[in-house]
Amino acid sequence: MKNDNIKTDSKNSILVDRSKLMKISVINPTRKRAKLIATATDSLINNADYVSRIEFIFRFDDDDKGSMYETMQYYDVEIKSITTINHEFRWGHSTYRLFEGFSETHNAVMKFIIGIRHGYIFINRYNDEQMHVCTGEYIVLMTDDIELTNLKGEENKITKQKYPGWDTLIREAEGQHYILFFKMKNKSRWPVVLPKKFFEINGRLCPNVLDDYWYDELCKALPTGTKVVLDWNAVHNCLFRTSREDVTAREGRKQFSSHRNKGVEGYELYNEEEMMNINKFLEENPNHKKTSQYHDDAISKIPFSKGGASGRWC
After folding, report:
1. With 241 labelled, which of 2, 76, 102, 114 sits at a CA distance of 20 to 30 A?
2. Which residues, other chains included, contact 77 with Cβ-Cβ below 8 Å and sequence gap of 6+?
3. How many whole angstroms separate alpha carbon 308 and alpha carbon 312?
4. What digits encode the pLDDT tens for the residues 75-109?
5. pTM greater than 0.85 (yes/no)
6. What separation, in Å, do the N-terminal and C-terminal C-alpha atoms of the chain show?
C-alpha cells in the first residue's frame, strides 16, 4: 500500500517524509464571497509544496450558510465530524459550530466554522475563533480577497533558482518565533504569518484592528531579526475605495470607521502591554537561526506611533 506521506523522486528514492513536516494553518474569515475565497484558496493550494500538511479554516456568518456549502462543494469536502465549540475569549463567550472535513481532490484538511455575525468592526473575534481550533505551529492570516501570485517553479531573477512553495519558505521558521510578511507591489504587507504562540501568550491575537497596522506596530516591540519579508507577492482583488470594491468591502469599512470613531462598546485600541508580553517571551526564547528570506530591522525597537494613520492608539 502506498504511503501518501512519503514523497519520492523518479528513481523512487525517499526525499521527504511529509508526516514529519511542520503543520501550517490558514485562517480566512469570509462573508458572501464564495467565488473570491475559492480564488484565494486556490492560489495557496497551487503554490504549495505539501498541501497535506496545511489545514484551511474558514469562518462564515450564520446568515451566510449558502457560501459555506458552496465552498464545501467546490472543494469536494467530505465532513468527518461536527462539533459545538463553547469558549470564553477575552472579549466574551462564544458558541459556534465546527465542521471538520477533508478534500480528497487536494489531499487537504478543511475546517468550516459557522457562528453569529460579529460584524466587520469585530473581525478580531473571527480570527480568535479560528485560531482557537488551529493545530498548526504557524498561522497564515489570509483574507478572502487576496490572491498569491503564481511563483512556484518559476525562476528567481536574482538567485536564478526556482521558487519552492510558499509553505516551504515558512517552514524555515519551524521551532522559532518569526513574524513573516508576504509582499504587495514589492512592499511587505499581506498576508501575515504568525506563530500560534503569539495567540496563546495573550489569549487572543489582537484588539479590533482592521487596518493591519497592528502588525507593524508589533514589529517595533520585537527583537531585531524577528520580522521576515518573504520574496513572494500577493494581489488585492477587492480593494476598498477603488472600482474593485464590492458591497462587503464598502459597507464593512464604513461600519468599521464609524464605530471606531464613536468608540462603541467592545471596541479596543492597541495594547502596549500585550505587545511587550510577546517581546518578553522572545527575549527569553530567542530565535537561533535565520531563514533564507529578508530579515527586516527597519522598524525594530523604534517608538510606537501612538496616533494618526500609522496606529489605533487613540
Report:
1. 114
2. 71, 101, 102, 103, 110, 112
3. 7
4. 999 999 999 999 999 999 999 999 999 999 999 99
5. yes
6. 61
